[in-house]
Amino acid sequence: MKVAMGQFAVSREWQENAAICIGLMNNALAGGADLLVLPEAVLAQDIADPDRVLKAAQPLDGPFVTQLLAASRGNTLTTIMSVHVPVEGNKAHNVLIVLRNGEIIARYVKLHLYDAFAMQESQRVNPGHEVPPLVEVAGMKVGLMTCYDVRFPELARRLALDGADVLVLPSAWVKGPLKEMHWELLTTARALENTCYMVAVGECGPRNIGNSLVIDPLGVAIAKAPESAALIFAELDPQRIAWARSVLPVLENRRFVRPELQPR
């Protein structure tokens, strides 16, 4: 599988962000990508106005996603990102969506809300309650996660037990003391402990770190982006997963097993 990672600074105007997303989709397709991963919350954001995510939130049949679906028609590129969708109580869901050939083929409402490091995502967002689905892309099974989810190893393990070869992580990882180190450490750990690829894409700009990366199943970083806007590519090899799981059979060697966490 050839994966593309498109990181950019999300603006307060959804029209600008839609145009950037469509441009990245076109460039990823031209580069031969099977999968494009974009950041978290790409519909609209404003550092000076934290409520912007609520003011700009749209249903999945709104103009933002409709434009992206139209741009996805007629090809097999799979595109993943998250957007804010309004719900009752003047709040939103942070919804990861998977687009392919004019359709939303999967969606996932973020489970773990970022109530940490003096931030409170739950003030504006309600959590989801369901384990993300797997999506097949170019013969590989892709598990869905969003940003803060990476700090909870049980979710990545559940997806691996369900059969994930690849974990994707659209993110808006906030800058701060040790935060870049946390980003690399956590994404590497989730890949290595589950012998999966990790494709983690971060928003860049004045608040967030960018630094999108791909970690292979033995913890090797095979692609990295800088702190600025970028589109980078990486090749994911199923044989590398098979090799990693043969020499490091951690999924087979587990001793603490709960029945409800067994593969479906």
From TrEMBL:
Coiled-coil annotated residue ranges, if any: none
Signal peptide positions on this chain: none
GO molecular function term, any single one: hydrolase activity
Stretches assigned to the CN hydrolase domain: 1-238
Entries under InterPro entries matching the protein: C-N_Hydrolase, C-N_Hydrolase_sf, De_GSH_amidase, UPF0012_CS
Alphabetized UniProt keyword annotations: Hydrolase
Family classification: Belongs to the carbon-nitrogen hydrolase superfamily. NIT1/NIT2 family.
Name listed for the protein in its UniProt record: Hydrolase
